[in-house]
Amino acid sequence: MSEHVITAPPVPTIPVAGGGQFPVRRVYCIGRNYAAHAVEMGHDPDREPPFFFQKNPDNLDASGEFPYPPQSADVHHEAELLVALGRGGADIAVAEALDHVWGYAPCLDMTRRDLQAEAKRMGRPWEIGKAFERSAPVGPLLPAAQTGPMDKGRIALTLNGATVQEGDLDQMIWKIPEMIACLSAYFELAPGDVILSGTPAGVGPVARGDALILSIAGLRDLSVTVT
């Protein structure tokens, strides 16, 4: 007999290519991790210390649809590589960090840019602009055993057939092992944690009816329609 006093919410998951589901514990996101994107957002592209924010695990959505959210008139796309951890730990060494990776997936960090900008101006947290319902459309995970290290390769996003974001994974300022090591100095990471690794330049607005396709070399494409 369950000891829960209300019905327990379902565990958020990401589908795995070939079958199965990856349960998600936490979602960490690194900010301004491509130099050109840092510039377009009005910041110095030099290698400043990394910073992170979080989305909610149930923000991840593999339905292929992104409902335009309320309370915003300026919602932007941000194309990212998602890194899923199969092992956790604290104070993980950079040289051992990739041993903790279970797999990779394409993901969109959809952002209520107007609400985020207002939060920035007022010195407030970003969650209202970042961690809203279905704000992280995600594609299927591929195991790291199949992909190998995702340290280079094209990442690109098309909007209604036109390429709007394009870069290479090797342009990340902070590489995947460094992100894992840095996070593990502040948090005890665990299996089921995922990291959104930053977006290249070209972020911009979406509108209802738009069709987005995120392509990352070595992974399956993620196709999303804005509804």
From TrEMBL:
Gene3D superfamilies tied to this protein: Fumarylacetoacetase-like, C-terminal domain
Pfam family for this entry, one: FAA_hydrolase
Enzyme nomenclature, EC number: 3.7.1.20
Catalytic class of the enzyme: hydrolase
Record GO terms (molecular function): acetylpyruvate hydrolase activity; fumarylpyruvate hydrolase activity; metal ion binding
InterPro entries from the UniProt entry: Fumarylacetoacetase-like_C, Fumarylacetoacetase_C_sf
Keywords tagged on the record: Hydrolase, Metal-binding, Pyruvate
Occurrences of domain Fumarylacetoacetase-like C-terminal (ranges): 27-226
Protein name per its UniProtKB record: Fumarylpyruvate hydrolase
Originating organism: Roseisalinus antarcticus
Organism classification: Bacteria, Pseudomonadati, Pseudomonadota, Alphaproteobacteria, Rhodobacterales
